[in-house]
Every structure is written in structure tokens, then in C-alpha cells.
Write a structure and sequence with these properties.
The protein is mainly beta. 3% of the residues lie in helices and 44% in strands. A hairpin with a 5-residue loop joins strand 4 (78-82) and strand 5 (88-92). The longest helix is centred in the first third of the chain and has 11 residues, at 5-15.
Length: 377
């Protein structure tokens, strides 16, 4: 049986010491300043329960921020907001809550939890297709747009190619779900310069697929391990012909994109998230360990043991490394790993934050979309 992010997050954070559901509020910090907050969805008063998979997306050229509700108990709600002051520009109300969204190249795509995929006009939030594309399962991994085709990995391990202009399904490819549970949900597809799509599957394998939907190769990364075998971490391009992939119980694997052969393996306990930034790879493990590695050669630079796991991948914003957690937001020095501050906030960070200049945008577990500025960073 496959468990997604929402169902297993509670178990994971409870096992690792989830904070109680005490009403937490924004405090003061010399590093952080809340610019605005807008109500999006009902609050969930449980710290350490990140359950907004859709989150936020932005188009700085038009000053548009799009935020979507992932609260499955309610009908869907997608808001177009001003990045500057949070003023609402439009609202779209799909029948179901939003599983993922993508705003890129002036195009906006919204996938809901009933398997419907919409293309919206980012200027007014109105649908641009005659009807939504219908997929067989929700897409809680971020879609990828490449040469006019949208690639999506759904929660039943199906990979879809959809024509962005019309919503026509061009092809689909799937692998059977294993009997052992998965943890995070499906990984975002990665399109390579070689004209291949990388898909990391729940059965612990990695595939390269041609742009017309033919599997070029499949490499099993986890096979004889007990426990969680899924390859949930988004593959990272290391250089021409080389990618870094992971499975939950098997560590990190350097894989050739030509034939899928394993070039090297690194023992890393339960890799969850990765964030490549310039020449550095920030890696998060399920053991609440954050490491910085050289992207070329994967030599360690520093490591930091955190007091709880991250709820999402870290990101560099301004000159700080942002660490979103279930109950707080922490900032660290990206070069040394030294902690700068920990900011206790409203029930935790629910969605993956995004950054523009020194401003963070995200959804909190209190149900609000927030713009937070990093001061002096």
C-alpha cells in the first residue's frame, strides 16, 4: 500500500518528537519581518504537520503570487495575489483541493486531488482549456514544462505527458506500486539535455524515458533492503551523463544517464530532500541531519544535527540558508552551517517556501499565505 505525504507525515513527526498542538504565534526576530498575511484555508493547530503540497508559485515579471489550498476536507481554492502587498487579484474554485501547481513561462497549471488538471490564465484565473485533462490519480509532485509539453508524476506511479496548449494527453507510462509502503509521495520528473526524462519510482528504481514515452532503461537502486524502498528524492544533475539519485533505505547513487549503470554509492541514512545551489548540494536525511556537499565529487563541507527533521527542502534566500520545519523557521550560514536564528511561528511551515531577493513566500499551518522578509541578509 502506498502512503503519501499527508498520511505519513503525522507518523514521522510523532515518532521524532512532534510538538504539542499549543497555540503558537509569531514572535519578534532581528532577522525576520512579516510584510503581510492573507487567509487561504482553515488552520490545523498541530505543529509539525506540513500538509500543503501545492503551496505557492510566483511570476516576478508581473508581480503575481499564486497560492492554493490543499485542505482536502474543503473545496478547492486558488488565489492570485500581489507579491507586494498580498492584495487579491482573482480567485479560482475547483471542485477539489489542489495537489500541485506550476507557474512558468507565463502559463499556470493546477492539479487537484481528484486527478483533474487545469490550465488557467494567470491574469484573471479563468480556465483556458475547454475542459480539464483527467488523470488517474492526484499529482502531488510539481509538474515540469518542457518544449510545450507538461510532464507529471501521479500518486499511483503514473507518468503523464500532456500538451500544454490544449490539455491533450500524449502518453502515459506507469509502474506497479510495491507492497511495501512509500513515504513522501512521488518525485518531480527531471528533463535532461540528452532528451530523456528521469523518473524516480516507489519501487526504489530510476528510469530514463524518451520524450515520446519509451523507457530507455530502468535501474533498481533498492532491492533487498527492509523498510521504505522508495526513491522519493528528486534526482540531481551532477554533470554531463551523471545524476545523483537516492532510495530511502539504500543511500545515494551516482548513476550514468547513458545506460543507468551505478558509478558510485554513498551510505547516507534515509535521504529525504536535496537542494543543489551553485557548486553545493544541501542534503537532508530522515535522521534530522543536514549536510553540505561539494556537487562535484560529493566531498562533505559541513554537517548539522537538527532538533527535528525539515518539513521541506532547504533553500538559499538572500545570503541565508532557510530551514523550514514543522514548528519553526530557522536560518543558517550556507557556508558554515552555523545557525543564525530559529523563529517560532504559527503552527509550522505547511508548504515549500519560495524566495525572491530576500523575501520568503509560503503557507503556514495556520492557513495563511505569508510574505516574510529576511533583514540584513
Amino acid at each position: 500500500m502506498k502512503y503519501g505525504l499527508t498520511s505519513l507525515a503525522v507518523l514521522l513527526f510523532a515518532a521524532l518528537g512532534c510538538a504539542s498542538s499549543v497555540d503558537q504565534v509569531w514572535g519578534t526576530s532581528p532577522w525576520l519581518d512579516t510584510r503581510w498575511a492573507v487567509d487561504l484555508e482553515a488552520p490545523v493547530k498541530m505543529a509539525g504537520y506540513p500538509r500543503n503540497t501545492a503551496g505557492v508559485a510566483m511570476d516576478p515579471s508581473t508581480g503575481l503570487l499564486v497560492a492554493a489550498s490543499s485542505l482536502r476536507a474543503d473545496a478547492g481554492r486558488v488565489l492570485g495575489l500581489s507579491m507586494l502587498d498580498g492584495a487579491q487579484r482573482w480567485e479560482f474554485s475547483p471542485a477539489a483541493a489542489t495537489a500541485s501547481l506550476l507557474l512558468t513561462e507565463g502559463q499556470l497549471f493546477v492539479a487537484d486531488f481528484e486527478g483533474s488538471l487545469w490550465k488557467l490564465d494567470p491574469r484573471n484565473g479563468k480556465p483556458l482549456w475547454d475542459k480539464p485533462a483527467v488523470l488517474s490519480a492526484p499529482v502531488d509532485a510539481q509538474p515540469v514544462l518542457h518544449n510545450g509539453v507538461l510532464y507529471l508524476h501521479d500518486s499511483s506511479d503514473g507518468l503523464w505527458a500532456v500538451r500544454a496548449s490544449t490539455g491533450e494527453v500524449l502518453w502515459t507510462l506507469s509502474r506497479p506500486l510495491p507492497s511495501s509502503p512509500g513515504l513522501l509521495g512521488q518525485a518531480m520528473p527531471v528533463v535532461l539535455d540528452e532528451g530523456l526524462i528521469l523518473a524516480a519510482w516507489t519501487d526504489g528504481s530510476l528510469s530514463a524515458i524518451t520524450l515520446d514515452g519509451q523507457e530507455s532503461w530502468n535501474r533498481k537502486l533498492c532491492d533487498s533492503f527492509d523498510g521504505l524502498n522508495d526513491a522519493d528524492m528528486v534526482p540531481v544533475v551532477l554533470g554531463p551523463g551523471r545524476v545523483l539519485a537516492a532510495c530511502h533505505e539504500g543511500g545515494l547513487f551516482e548513476v550514468s544517464t547513458q545506460d543507468g549503470s551505478i558509478l558510485s554509492r554513498r551510505d547516507t541514512p534515509r535521504p529525504l530532500y536535496s537542494a543543489p545551489v551553485d557548486a553545493t548540494l544541501y542534503l537532508v536525511s530522515g535522521a534530522a541531519e543536514l549536510s553540505a556537499l561539494d556537487l562535484d565529487g560529493l566531498a562533505p563541507r559541513w554537517s548539522l544535527h537538527l532538533w527535528r527533521p525539515l518539513s521541506h527542502a532547504p533553500l538559499v534566500c538572500g545570503s541565508a540558508l532557510v530551514l523550514p520545519m514543522g514548528d519553526s523557521l530557522a536560518l543558517a550560514d550556507p557556508d558554515t552551517g552555523a545557525l543564525l536564528t530559529r523563529y517560532q511561528l504559527e503552527f509550522g511551515v505547511s508548504s515549500a517556501p519560495i524566495c525572491k531577493d530576500s523575501d520568503l513566500y509560503f503557507v503556514s499551518n495556520g492557513g495563511k499565505v505569508r510574505r516574510v522578509s529576511l533583514l540584513g541578509l
